[in-house]
Amino acid sequence: MIKKNTINESKLARFSAVAGAVLASGAVNSQIVYTDVNPDVIIDTASGQYDLDFNSDAVVDISMDVMAVINQTGTLNGISFTFNGTGAFATPAMGNGVLQLAGSGSSSTMVVAALNNGDMINAAAVFGGSSSGTMLGLEGLADVPAFSLSNYPVAQGAFLGVSDKFLGVKFMIGANTHYGWARMDVSAGADTIRVKDYAYNQNTDLPILAGMMVGLDDVAVDNKVTIKTTLNNATINVTPDLIGGRIALFNMAGQEVKVVTIKDINTEIPFEGVETGIYTITAQFDGGNVTKKVYVK
Question: Collapsing DSSP states into helix, strand and coil, what is residue 83?
Fold first, then answer.
């Protein structure tokens, strides 16, 4: 099931917070392909692996599974241990990757980032490949003979016990790189993954925001603009695709008393020199106008 979402004011604030980075990356007219997983997919030790194909081309991009980890031996900083428990994993296909925690090297298996709504997913991020960085969460008991520790509790992973977090993904369509996200919950025991929805940017090499469901071209103008006023000035905030529009201040007689060209995502109009009274601020664009009444002291 595919569903479209409009952008309300709270979502606009999320767009605006990273709009400069989006603009710098050239993603002004990004086309977002969004899929609602309905009903949610539940993955556990009995369900088997879930394969996610972002662009429905019959090529698996990311595999997710929950596994019982029994008598797994290993070393950490040269210290041997044995682990028993459960692990939740997201493993990208060869050539793809999952986003890593900031500052972590891609060689670690415990650095997958649990993104928040609005976080940027782009080429500047570090992505772990198919043999690294796949662990969402791990919970169980470890024996560490060197320290005489038995049944030492272990709970690891940024997704462990959290809800509505986003997995950042890069994947290949042919020879082209694309960026996407998948929203999921992972249980506190690392024994269940719930996949809720996912999306990707159809444009090659262009970024996407975690949770972004529509491209800017699909959003109405009045959902791309916020106008905030004080007695001394007005601040107009727009999404990057609206840069180049104009803002006009009209008095009650309909006369234009000030006009400013929008050159950035934030534009401020000072009321200095404007007589006291009620005015209309109009942000004007090819796709429509946004208007607000304001009192100037």
Answer: strand
